[in-house]
Specification:
Layout: H1 5-29, E1 45-55, E2 60-70, E3 76-79, E4 91-94, H2 99-133
Antiparallel strand pairs: 1-2, 3-4
Helix pairs in contact: 1-2
Length: about 140
């Protein structure tokens, strides 16, 4: 029995939350990007998680990132006739990024990351105590 598999559970979740935080940071950084190489405004991205079986005999599951997908909601449209990307009527298509929603997502991802760090540290402390008892 591999006692370190429980570390893998927390570590997989921390890696997944790190990718989520990087994606959220990208969304925030591009909240005003009206022109992308693909054409049009930046499209918000979101991370898709999935469970993955780490240890079949013990039923341990971890988390992995399956994909980073674009949000298909329509872009925001604002009136800004002086903007270089404005259409003939003066309207500009802006990214579909909601700053408040992204900040809430960032706080949730940070809390999830912290919870997994705590679980990792508690497991480590438990194993160290077990080693002390074995002396």
């Amino acid at each position: 029995m591999d006692i370190f598999k429980s570390f893998d559970v927390s570590a997989s979740a921390m890696v997944a939350q790190k990718i989520r935080l990087n994606t959220i940071a990208s969304n925030l950084a591009n909240a005003d990007t009206t022109r992308t190489p693909e054409g049009g405004p930046y499209r918000r991205r979101d991370v898709v998680f999935s469970s993955v079986l780490l240890d079949e005999t013990r039923g341990l599951e971890g988390v992995r990132v399956v994909d980073v997908v674009e949000d298909n909601s329509p872009p925001r449209v604002i009136y800004s006739p002086g903007h270089p990307d404005a259409d003939a009527r003066g309207f500009v298509k802006m990214p579909n990024v909601n700053i408040i929603e992204e900040m809430v997502n960032m706080m949730v991802a940070t809390r999830a990351y912290e919870a997994n760090v705590n679980a990792f540290n508690i497991t480590k402390a438990m194993y160290l105590k077990a080693l002390e008892l074995g002396r």
